[in-house]
Write a structure and sequence with these properties.
By secondary structure, the protein is mainly α. The chain has one domain. 73% of the residues lie in helices and 2% in strands. Residues 1-5 have low confidence and may be disordered.
Amino acid sequence: MPDPVRVSPFIGFRTLLHKEILRFWKVGFQTVAAPVLNALLFLLIFSHVLDRHITVYGDVPYTAFLVPGLVMMSLLQNAFANSSSSLIQSKITGNIIFVLLPPLSCRVFYAAYVLAAILRGLLVAAGVWLVACLFVAAPLAQPAWALAFAVLGGALLATFGIIAGIWADKFDQLASFQNFIVMPLTMLSGVFYSIHSLPPLWQRVSHFNPFFFMIDGFRYGFFGQSDASPWLSLAVTGSCLIALAALTLVMLAKGYKLRG
């Protein structure tokens, strides 16, 4: 009997990644351009109201301070949306079976979904940053730090999106993750303010929010200044990513809510 055909893991990974990239790129006006416009509206409204009244870190104008927060917020939300919406759509339409049938390991499955989500997040983030630069100077003082937090933050939210997409059976269940977890933690993470402007109690509470460390570390890449040590932010973000990635791989290996 001839040996069964062996498929290279790289071929499977490349095919699944290509499928996930095409999925959001073909509707790029909705998945990339629309989030850029939303972030621009935040920038214009908040900067018009508060720029003359607030400075941060002593000499940073509020509009400039706002830019990295909006860039990172857009990246995180779109990374989550990409992986979670892809899985829930595949489950509801039933075409998830065509992804599960090929001999792909859970690591290949995970890597393809996460990388595609990171790419969408980075495209949106780059768009927000470039448009914001038309209104305010937002140079990168520490680009390596900014890139590190962008990739790690995108991977973390993409991973969380996979967990949400696996767990949810309906779109409204998935929306609960976005509305009651991702959005509140993002809005309360220091996107629009420095936590040093908060009372001491709420400053301490903010340090239990992992989104704060992602955004604060990313902001360090712009100004070389931050509310917390960038090394602490990197450690927290990396630890959360490792924990969620381990949970996701266990769920994928067991076929939780994916295989009947």
